[in-house]
Amino acid sequence: MTLGPRAYRLGKRQADVEDTRERIVDAATALFGESGFHRVTLEDVAKRAGVARATVYYQFESKFGLLDAVIAAIVERVGLERVQRAREHPDAALGVRLYLKEVVAFWSKHDALHRNIFGLAAVDPEAARLVEQYDGRRKDVIAWPVKRLDDQGKLRKSMTQRHAVDVLWMLSGFRSFDQLYSRSKLSVPAAATLLSELAANAVIEPAAAAG
After folding, report:
1. CB-CB contact of 28 with 40 (8 Å)
2. Please, which residues bridge with residue 155 across strands?
3. Long-range pairs for 74-80 at CB < 8 Å and ≥24 separation?
4. Contact assessment for residue 188 and residue 181, using Cβ atoms and an 8 Å cutoff
5. Cα-only R_g, the chain
6. Is the pLDDT of residue 12 over 60?
7. Helix 137-151 vs helix 161-171: crossing angle, to nearest 10
8. Measured distance CA(184)–CA(201) in Å, rounded
9. Coil, strand, or helix at residue 37?
């Protein structure tokens, strides 16, 4: 079936809109990581993306709307499939270890940007709500491998599923990674290994962890 001229124009227009949106998000991702959220204006983002400031407003409505899009794009693009595969590994105990390592790889891809976002959330209520929206979802993600640990008889007997989720949520958070990476000066692989071992020791039965 051949598209008519109008359908072709509409399709091209939509593709152009999506390309523009992606360029704006890429520009904001770079600028927020380099300079911090409050130091960057929408004019700065527009200039980096090669668009008019009105285009940025039209696409995202506000700077926080743009920040929301930046976070969503990072979650979608950076290693999400690998995190998902680790979470669903047939061996739940190994899956927990792999999950922690993949999450560390995720945080490390844009560590300066994440550091700026979490720092902003500490002082700005709107940013805090935005971060909580995304960071809180990790508990839902973690609940599945914890349930599988329990189903496979590998969850530490002193742990409830709820407590195990809380522990893994804390260990897989950006602040845990950043404490080891930027403050303790561990390499990304070393931080990943340490957090993975801490997770295994905390929530997995010793015999299962050794296996």
Report:
1. yes
2. 204
3. 74/29, 74/109, 74/110, 74/113, 75/134, 78/106, 78/109, 78/110, 79/105, 79/106, 79/109, 80/106
4. yes
5. 21
6. no
7. 130
8. 21
9. coil
Higher pLDDT, 12 or 27: 27
Determine the pLDDT at residue 1.
Answer: 44
Q: What are phi and psi of 182, to 5 degrees?
A: -90, -25
Phi, psi of 83 (to 5 degrees): -60, -45
In whole angstroms, give the CA distance from residue 162 to residue 71.
27
- Which pTM was predicted? 0.82
pLDDT tens, 169-187? 999 999 999 999 999 999 9
pLDDT digits (tens, 9 = 90+) for 122-162: 999 988 998 888 888 888 889 999 999 999 999 999 999 99
Q: Is 32 exposed, middle or buried (0-12, 13-18, 19+ CB in 10 A)?
A: buried
Paired tokens of 122: 């500490």
Burial of 125 (0-12, 13-18, 19+ CB in 10 A): exposed
Q: How many Å apart are CA 96 and CA 151, to the nearest integer?
A: 14
What six digits make up the tokens of 168? 């893994």
